[in-house]
Amino acid sequence: MPGPEFCIRPRGAVRRGAALTFVFVTVLTGAVATDSLPRDERSAPVRRLARTVPATVDRDEVARAAAAAVADGKSGTKAAEEVVSRSGDRWGAVYARDEFEEFEQALDGRYTGVGLSARRDSAGRIEIARVLPGGPADRAGLRPGDRLHAVDGRPVRGRSVSEVVALLRGDGEGGGGTGAPAGSRVVLDVRRGGHGWTGTLCRARLTTEDVTVERLDAEAVRIRVAAFTKGSGERVRDAVRRAPEGAGVLLDLRGNSGGLVTEAVAAASAFLDGGLVATYDVHGEEKALYAEPGGDTDRPLVALLDGGTMSAAELLAGALKDRGRAVTVGARTFGKGSVQMPSRLPGGSVAELTVGHYRTPAGHTVDGRGITPDLAAGEEAEKRARTVLSGLGDGS
Question: Is 336 considered catalytic here?
Answer without folding.
Answer: yes
